[in-house]
Backbone:
């Protein structure tokens, strides 16, 4: 999720030689669509199962916002001025140190305590940062060894040729096979390593088909992320099922259903880059509005509830309408709204009849 997308996005900026903010800008709408899907699906489940939140609300001090927002603002400000990621990160770290010191001084005017607290933060940050760097170096080193083996054996070229030949000039089939290979390559790997491996093997094939390098790398990047929730090897699902004490396969299926729009969106911007904010303003606006409505339709299909249970025919109509709306096409959008609208009308009419019958009783 922009503005800070993690190590994979910074590596992408280096691989294709474009500004990081360009990548963040392109990724913002697909990321928002994913979060809308997750939030609305959970909301519908909560309404269906009558789940309510805690009555006590946590109190967040202004200081807690400052220590997060000030370094972030410095980092993004420097990137927008054309500074490198490394320089932006350095000055953001300095800004974070100053902010922490001022926050500690505001709560405790004792200079000794302030220095002690600030020093502890610096020490803990340095240790955690070093651990993360060591872990990332090991992951990237392993990924680079794999990439080197793929290159030396010619497997990368053969796999790229295989994808193109299987698609036989059909872009959708090439994208589909690339998705499958990317998910397989990402099994059990962290996102960064999965992306680096996928970018080395799959991105050249997609670029050779005439896809813009940014779109090709974003396509690989998204499915590298989604490999964490896609069975049979789904690291994030294993963790979640352990916390929830639930069957991992059931959790994996539910996670894929909740994240279903995220599997569709990369195909969408591969055909029409309006969802990554490329194109005329009117096209971008229509693509965003229809995609949001489409995501909501898909969530209702997944949960099967909207102020009452939704039958199978209504769910299929919502699924078809939702998929059509996510694809930036005026004709498909009109058809999608018609199908989804028909399903919503049927749901509303049945609910009204049910409430009237209940009232009469």
Residues:
């Amino acid at each position: 999720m922009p503005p800070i997308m993690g190590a994979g996005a910074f590596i992408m900026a280096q691989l294709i030689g474009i500004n990081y903010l360009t990548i963040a800008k392109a990724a913002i709408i697909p990321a928002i669509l994913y979060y809308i899907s997750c939030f609305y699906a959970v909301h519908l489940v909560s309404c269906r199962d009558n789940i309510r939140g805690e009555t006590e609300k946590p109190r967040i001090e202004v200081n807690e916002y400052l220590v997060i927002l000030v370094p972030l603002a410095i980092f993004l400000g420097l990137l927008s001025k054309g500074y490198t990621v490394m320089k932006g990160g350095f000055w953001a770290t300095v800004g974070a140190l100053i902010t922490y010191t001022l926050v500690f001084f505001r709560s405790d005017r004792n200079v000794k305590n302030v220095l002690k607290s600030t020093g502890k933060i610096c020490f803990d940050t340095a240790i955690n940062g070093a651990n993360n760097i060591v872990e990332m170096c090991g992951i990237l080193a392993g990924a680079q060894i794999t990439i080197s083996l793929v290159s030396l054996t010619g497997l990368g070229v053969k796999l790229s040729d295989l994808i193109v030949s299987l698609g036989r000039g059909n872009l959708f089939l090439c994208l589909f096979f690339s998705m499958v290979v990317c998910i397989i390559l990402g099994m059990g790997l962290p996102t960064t390593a999965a992306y680096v491996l996928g970018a080395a093997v799959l991105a050249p094939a997609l670029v050779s088909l005439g896809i813009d390098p940014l779109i090709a790398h974003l396509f690989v990047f998204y499915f590298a992320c989604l490999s964490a929730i896609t069975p049979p090897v789904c690291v994030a699902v294993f963790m979640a099922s352990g916390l929830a004490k639930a069957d991992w396969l059931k959790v994996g299926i539910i996670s894929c259903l909740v994240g279903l729009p995220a599997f569709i969106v990369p195909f969408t911007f591969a055909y029409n880059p309006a969802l990554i904010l490329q194109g005329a303003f009117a096209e971008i606006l229509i693509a965003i509005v229809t995609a949001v409505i489409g995501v909501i339709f898909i969530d209702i299909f997944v949960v099967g509830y909207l102020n009452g249970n939704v039958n199978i025919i209504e769910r299929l109509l919502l699924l078809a309408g939702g998929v059509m709306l996510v694809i930036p096409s005026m004709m498909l959008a009109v058809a999608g709204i018609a199908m989804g609208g028909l399903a919503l009308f049927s749901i509303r009419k049945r609910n009204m009849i049910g409430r009237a019958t209940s009232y009469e009783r």
User: Anything to note?
Assistant: The CA atoms of residues 122 and 276 lie 38 Å apart. The chain has a mean pLDDT of 82.
